[in-house]
Amino acid sequence: MIRKILLMSLLVAGTRLFAQQAADSLFSGSKPVETVSFSSDGKSLVFATNEGLIRVLNVADKKEVGQIAPATFSLVYSAVSPDGKTIATVGARYDGPPLRDGSNFVGIVQLWDSATLKEKGWIKQNGSGNSLAFSPDSKTLATTAGHNTQQLVLVDLESLKQRAKLTVGKSCLSAVAYSRCGKFLATGTYKGEVKIWDTQSNKELQSFDAHDGYRVSALAFSPDSKLLVSTPFESATHESLPGSVVRVWEVETEKKRHDIRQPRGSIFVSAVLFSGKESRFLVASGFTILIYDAQSGKRISELNGHTNRVTSLALSPDGKLLASGSIDRTVRIWKVE
Hints:
Structural class: mainly beta
Largest sheet: 4 strands, antiparallel
CATH architecture of the domain at 172-297: 7 Propeller
CATH superfamily of the domain at 172-297: YVTN repeat-like/Quinoprotein amine dehydrogenase
Shape: globular
Number of helices: 0
Order of helices and strands: EEEEEEEEEEEEEEEEEEEEEEEEEEEE
Number of strands: 28
Strand content: over 45%
Strand order of the largest sheet: 1-28-27-26
Distance between the termini: 5 Å
């Protein structure tokens, strides 16, 4: 279970990082956090802010050990490869005229050496993207082919060449996730479509409407790869409205196992991941992190402390720490027991 004890709250503002109690987590002058990832040894935390910087800090002493400044100006998203050798970033860059709005934005995926923080290579896309996922063997990067595209590109990380391109649906790609066994890849779109793919043949195995036309914000396979959790990101924001519905699916049959209604007002569900426990998963639901049992669909516990929407979640490789990033400009580290 995850203890409701905040170990540290990390302020993202220049290089200042402050330990804080949960009640004092709002800081002015800093930037919202978009993504968080642990290094493969769990000693470092990599996170992206919407100022376009990637920051790397030491978890033990909370000191910043480096920054990455991608060649993009828009929101930057990041991910760390399972073998810990590579950090991937994706964002957009303006490449000169048209605009209004025959746009001329290009998406740039850059790969960085996690030890030196130096660039290893880059991939140009047709417009901006916001989806990244490494295969469990760290040999392939799955990323969107660009802005307003229905395609997912699989890139060979040794040659930096395209290995395959998958059409994810009738709408744009919004989420992607690999199963831990590496056999399956799941994709979600802005229109609620979910597809499950065989990673060896790149053939579509399952396809279904997961969220009634609402954008799929996140996907996560259970550790045994038998279940898939999908979360929606709905556009309504009024507190009186019912919360969004998180859904649990059987991978083999695409049968819906559970509808899990979020608390009233929890419209924005931004992230999902399974904990070290086989059947437990965590959902970033509004300002709160909720913990569920995938077998029963029942809520087990919750983590409170963020004062704005939680945008991302990451579990350390040993399963002992949970990191959460938020629009409230903090990164929090929670102890798992």
